[in-house]
Amino acid sequence: MLTPSQQVNITLEHIHNHILAAYSAKERAAIQKTEDWKQFSTRLHTYFPTLMWELDSVYGNNEAVLPMLQQLMRMAWQSYAERSAPLKQQDAEREANPDWFLSNKMVGGVCYVDLFAGNLRGIIDSIPYFKELGLTYLHLMPLFKCPEGKSDGGYAVSSYREVNPALGTIEDLRDVAEALREAGITMVVDFIFNHTSNEHEWAKACAAGDPMYDNFYYIFPDRWMPDQYDRTVREIFPDQHPGAFSQLWDGRWVWTTFNSFQWDLNYSNPWVFRAMAGEMMFIANLGVDILRMDAVAFIWKQLGTDCENLPQAHALIRAFNAVMRIAAPSVLFKSEAIVHPDKVVQYIAPNECQLSYNPLQMALLWNTLATRDVNLLQQALTFRHNLPANTGWVNYVRCHDDIGWTFADEDAAHFGINGFNHRQFLNRFYVNRFEGSFARGVPFQDNPNTGDCRISGTCASLVGLEQDDPYAIDRIRLLHSIILSAGGLPLIYLGDEVGTPNDMSYLEDENKQDDSRWAHRPARDCALYEQRNDPSTHAGQIYQGLRQLIELRQSHEGFGGSDLSIFDCKNPHVLGYSRNNSILVLANFSEQEQILSALTFSLLPEQAHDLISNQTIRLDQDVVLQPYQVLWLEVVIDQTAEKAA
Ligand code: GLC
Ligand code: GLC
Fold it and tell me: pTM score, two decimals?
């Protein structure tokens, strides 16, 4: 009987031979001498065992796995051989520096290509602006071919090898990647691998009964199975359809977690894994640096469960990751899991997703603005922030999606807060149904059956800029000061840096009116961008404030990495934390002046330099923080000995 490692070795040998069998003896000899082959073969030896192990854990002894792997690894070799020289060089550089994305120099932006720049050429033209802002990371929202009309903002992909013609061509996308790389900006695009659009050729072939695409999706003849699954799965867009299924023209039912035109892929079929891995390698070779792994929680279904965050979903992502390490080694994954915080972290690992959205921090920033109490945020930063080496958070104030209150009820209970009631309060607060609220958000998927609701709104509208709340600009700066300093990669939704308000024109567009997330996806407002250097305007004040914070972050290594230690200010309105034993952040989340007792600082030097105000702050006296003021103090923490002496 063979041991597992003997089995892997035999399979590896087999795969090697299979790849080379495509060539004549002479070609084979030549290939084996190339640097490309050496590199590929080394990586294959390192990562193939993982790949096989993960797929084994998902598929057991499904007989399709071996032929699938043979084909996949042949594709991986071709893909690596075709990878451009600059990308191969980058592969080597990043393998040697696996936490490059946690440098203090990293600052991210995200935009829709059409709404921000018209098309892909417009993105190239916007590079001087991206550099002015200080961006080193740019997430371009979905840009592949998608249905006309409704497409969930492009999250329904009809072809991963064609760009949406309104935005440009594949060649344009390659040019964008190259231009961004030359400008020192990494490019991030979505890998939408949980579902395709109903217009994807796989979907059409599967629905038509083409045996090649048999079981590519979950299509059921009647309601029997859908009814079983619907008992336990969550409704994501209940406004669009109750449950997780949509009916086809011929009466059958297809699994659609999101919208009726987004068909979930059936990963219990190993050929679906191979098909998507092929698309992934194609996208990687366009020059993408980071793939945003869309809707990771949903990729595996199992009857009787909520069909989210199942172990097989993790194994599949690790398998995709292993393919990437072999075929396009510098490409990293960013997880998009907007789920319970215990589940969010499970996707984060060097061999799974190296980066992850930080939805808890995002939600708690808004929570803290509403309650003026840092309790939940401080708790989250204490217990849920630090991550394994070579992984990191993407910290954001808001994104293109709604704000959901994904804190853990257990965490809230610790402060005597009832999670359900508190979410009701937050929803009322942010849609301005709570007296005294400064926010002007819009409800999203208000679900009377469950009491669930989420929030749409741009940063400016949610902090009260529209009705000229005197603290709105301070709040924008405060929120961004946290994402820029807390450890991880900060991500700014472009438009927020000039205070763009909600855009309610979506209500007049029949393809958008039932999805309030469009309220916070405004097109670039040229007038606001023109005011960005004029300090007499709101846009100017916001922009200059954020520019300063970005510049400070980028010039102090103390902001790099991801670890953070809480500094308890003994004041419920003030958040404190230190970074890398060199920066102390103090942030007042209320519109009242706050006094921190000198005793709080007894272990610190007598004074410290505040990077933001460029003033010396005495720490041997009480420290007074103005409403919403943030200090970034340069201090060496824990200098107990020095103090005693
Ligand atoms: C992700 C996207 C969201 C989209 C969904 C379906 O959650 O962020 O915008 O609706 O996936 O693709
Ligand atoms: C749900 C999903 C998340 C998606 C969002 C879109 O929260 O978990 O993936 O972004 O819906 O609204």
Answer: 0.96
